[in-house]
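Bump. Still looking for Transposase structure tokens.
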Amino acid sequence: ERFLVSIFDTYNQKFLNRSHKGFQQVTDTLVSMFTE
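Sorry for the wait, here they are.
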């Protein structure tokens, strides 16, 4: 679980500024999947 979190953090740092809109859409999709 920590391993996935560290990958996710690295991904955030590398791509958040570059593709913020796309990433936000993915995040919203994941959230909606988990909250259904």
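Helices lie at 2-15, 20-35.

Edit: fixed formatting.
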